[in-house]
Structures
1.
Amino acid sequence: MPAPFDRPTTHHLPALRHLTVTAVTRITPVFARVTLTGPDLDAFPTTGPDDHVKVFFPHPETGDITVPSPRLPGADLETPRAEVLARDYTPRAFRPATEARPATADHPATEACPAELYLDILLHGTGVASTWAASARPGDRLVVGGPRVSKALPADTGSVLLLGDESALPAIARWLEQLPEGTPITALLEVTDARARSYFPDELRMRADILWLLGEHGAGQLLAALRGLGPLDAHTFVFGAGEAAALVPLRQHLRKDLALPAAQVALNGYWKTDA
């Protein structure tokens, strides 16, 4: 029997995938969904709800995409290296390639479709990813590395508590999709832009009891809402993501005040202020 909250981990072979944009869709006023394809997507692994990839963006002036490479022994350490513009993202979805099929008595003919990877990028003003996504067009290129590991859903979970800011919404959407039907889910989500509340389609909104907290009403709302829940059930798994420093008081409350074991809590810093 697996231990409570055990999350079996699958390690994937390192990979850098050179991909091409085929579509950019504004799914909400503050999120752009970028569709990527290319031969390198064959056998792309993304099974865990919080998998993440590293996306390498083109330099805004040259259009070149630089990926890091180790320095060889004896290399000139003073030689400047090209700037690496990279950010981590949760793949919103992956669709494997499908083959063309002739029509049958029961089904119409279907065309072959290439594999597609979908990334949802938050549009929050200036920034490497946000600036690129705001003007991205079909034919643009990106390089995607990973994912390195996939963690399965936690075992022996009675209910789930999801915490986060806008950057966590794609991962939280994957949790809502992958958790078994009937799992009680509570989500406390603090967003800077109220328009981010339209990110989840209706079928996902119905999966959870969601409390939206608007940043315009002041800091500390997420911690206050978490404290307002009181003690958590021994079978409640907690996943959270967002700005790294903002997660510190949440982690202290969960691990110290409520004395939850480490396996019951997974909080991930997705970004840092001014980083």
2.
Amino acid sequence: MPLVLVVDDEPAILRLLSLMLRGLGCETISAADAEKALLYLETSEPSLIISDVRLPGMNGVDFAERVKADPRFTETPVVLISAFGEPNGNGSGHVADRFLAKPFDFDALTEVLRSYLDLEGEEPAPA
């Protein structure tokens, strides 16, 4: 069962993504900020990470850079999400593997997840 780390400071988004991911056959770990997510990564190796861009403290772009700089996670897909458009990172883009705009289209999100994870082909739980 794939493990997905979801990082977002909005509890409703964390719950919604966790329900959807569980409906697709994934286990989830949730964090409300990047610092907590980095603590989880000390003991967990998720198959995929979904992170909001605008987070308290460290933002999602910097978080993705920290994750990708760790040799354990260079191949771990990171999907950034935001209601404020795709970030430019340090001016030359960002290191995340994908970007999805909020509010997300659940079919598009499901397709992104299926492109990275070995899922059973189940449909997401209705929101």
